[in-house]
Specification:
The chain is of the alpha+beta class. The chain has helices at about 65-70, 85-95, and strands spanning about 1-5, 10-15, 20-25, 30-35, 40-45, 75-80. Strands 2-1-6-3-4-5 form a six-stranded mixed sheet.
């Protein structure tokens, strides 16, 4: 996992991958997933909201960057992963019981 930043430093990247996780301002984690038809949606690990956290289709992006731009006000940290498995492992570890 590498933290996404616009200015490089140790263990960071300035390139988004296909497997992106985010930490939100409310301390929940999110994962950007493609739901087909080039729609990228952010799901969260917050039990109450599930994958409706960002209001459905209005917040879907046409790519990873577009989805991030639509929720920019709520972002704290962006992480890029090398695989779907790595992203989902990180995402599940952040789930609250």
């Amino acid at each position: 996992m590498k933290k996404y930043v616009e200015n490089k430093s140790e263990e960071t990247t300035d390139e988004l991958t296909n497997w992106v996780g985010i930490e939100l301002s409310n301390l929940n984690r999110g994962a950007i997933l493609c739901f087909g038809d080039n729609r990228y949606h952010i799901i969260t690990n917050e039990d109450f909201y599930g994958n409706r956290y960002y209001g459905g289709i209005d917040y879907d992006g046409c790519n990873v960057k577009d989805a991030l731009d639509k929720v920019n006000d709520h972002l704290c940290t962006i992480y890029c992963f090398d695989s779907y498995k790595e992203l989902m492992t990180w995402f599940v570890k952040g789930m609250k019981d």
